[in-house]
């Protein structure tokens, strides 16, 4: 019988999983800000106001930072 390679330890970190997890953190904040800005601008155009863009931008910033912090905590617990 041929020798089989030993199975990998399940606790060994997968490099590609770590790359995906940490690169996700880099995209969360900018994408949340852009989405908030676009939604605010669309509401401004639809409702004929001038302040919704700023409100959408602020909501997007807050949502992005919250998700960034959650992701960083989650990544820290996995190690």
List keywords for this structure.
76% helix; 79 residues; 0% strand; single chain
Compact overview of the structure:
By secondary structure, this protein is mostly helical.
| Low-pLDDT regions | none
Morphology call: elongated
Structural class comes to mainly alpha
Q: What's the total helix number?
A: 2
> Major beta sheet, specifics?
none
Radius of gyration: 21 Å
Question: What does the model show?
Answer:
The protein has 79 residues and is mostly helical. It has one domain (19-78). It is 76% helix and 0% strand. The protein has 2 helices and no strands. The longest helix is centred in the middle third of the chain and has 33 residues, at 15-47. The two termini are 37 Å apart. The model has no long low-confidence stretch (mean pLDDT 84).
Topology:
Layout: H1 15-47, H2 52-78
């Amino acid at each position: 019988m041929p020798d089989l390679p030993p199975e990998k330890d399940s606790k060994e970190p997968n490099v590609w999983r770590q790359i995906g997890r940490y690169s996700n953190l880099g995209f969360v904040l900018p994408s949340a800000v852009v989405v908030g800005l676009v939604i605010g601008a669309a509401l401004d155009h639809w409702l004929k106001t001038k302040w919704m863009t700023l409100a959408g931008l602020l909501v997007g910033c807050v949502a992005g930072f919250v998700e960034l912090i959650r992701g960083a905590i989650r990544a820290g617990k996995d190690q």
